[in-house]
What we know:
The chain is of the alpha/beta class. It has a 6-stranded mixed β-sheet with strand order 6-9-10-3-11-12, sandwiched between helices. Strands 2-1-4-5 form a 4-stranded antiparallel β-sheet, with helices on one face. The protein has helices at 66-73, 96-101, 119-123, 141-154, 171-184, 201-216, 228-234, 257-265, 267-280, 306-314, and strands spanning 28-37, 40-50, 55-60, 81-86, 89-90, 104-107, 130-131, 138-139, 189-193, 220-225, 237-242, 245-251. Helix 5 packs parallel to helix 6 (201-216). The protein has a single domain, classed as P-loop containing nucleotide triphosphate hydrolases (Rossmann fold, 3-Layer(aba) Sandwich), CATH 3.40.50. It contains 10 helices and 12 strands. Bound molecules: adenosine-5'-triphosphate and magnesium ion (MG).
Amino acid sequence: MTSKTPAAPGTHGAVLADPAPEQDRPLVELRRAGKSYGNIRALHGVDLAVHPGRVTCVLGDNGAGKSTLIKIISGLHQHTEGEFLVDGDAVRFGTPRDALARGIATVYQDLATIPLMPVWRNFFLGSEMTKGPWPVRRLDIDRMKRTADEELRNMGIVLDDLEQPIGTLSGGQRQCVAIARAVYFGARVLILDEPTAALGVKQSGVVLKYIAAARERGLGVIFITHNPHHAYMVGDHFSVLRLGTLELSAARADITLEALTNHMAGGAELAALKHELAQVGGVDVQALPDDAGTAPKTAAPDTADRTDRTNRTESTAPDSPASGTAEGKA
Ligand SMILES: Nc1ncnc2c1ncn2[C@@H]1O[C@H](COP(=O)(O)OP(=O)(O)OP(=O)(O)O)[C@@H](O)[C@H]1O
Ligand SMILES: [Mg+2]
């Protein structure tokens, strides 16, 4: 009975059906884009599309070009080849402010927070709410506290006390506050540069949960990571960079976790490493898995539909983010 139902237009949050591709114009798109720093070509011929309500994962080893790619999208650098489109318009951002004005927000790993200031102050840092007419204008502290609390709850983030200095939160919680902040200030595209790189298993899970929450609120998310397992938990599309070019670009339905892990591990490179280890001695090379088995034996979830993914990510949600709670901004 679910045959060919067109995606509900204009609904928010609960759009679970896959919209028809032609209706689903990317928020951000790169076409054969590249970037050279002088005569160093850091990125070349990259195609990438970010859709509303989808998570696009960008994977790759050190120096693969991941940061270069997001710097183009976030307005820090300009591409030197190909095209960069936002809502279908070719653009060239001069500063990160230009990107923000188009709803593209970036959460960097070294978050720009002031550790000794309370959580709510950091939430509004640089965009404080004020009250009163100009000469006697002052901070609207009550409203900022209330709003920060509401917005964090809307994302399913429950903190005991917003007065506590943000420096006392864990790395994962700080990432989550930064994500909620970007959502509140109207981001449509959220770029996360290795948000789980420095985190343990549990904290990474928390961050992944909010990535899923941002997607449920209709944002397009670009999730940069080294970790194929993290990517596969929340990703809708996977782009693997190697030496500045796109080595793999696959929709979730077209790739298993095992295949993705193999791509990241670089089957051939692992074989070479194994060979080198054999020369050094002290490593029982025979006991290592063979090249075909370089991927950890994790059961790859084989269903690719969205409902399934939602279930997987919400198992840790204390309070799943309410859909359609985007009030307070636009
Ligand atoms: N400002 C720059 N000037 C010259 N070369 C640069 C500059 N920034 C990056 N590069 C080069 O471009 C290539 C890609 O770097 P990039 O930082 O994008 O990689 P990455 O995938 O983010 O790596 P990592 O995982 O280590 O963060 C590297 O070879 C790097 O040396
Ligand atoms: Mg980088």
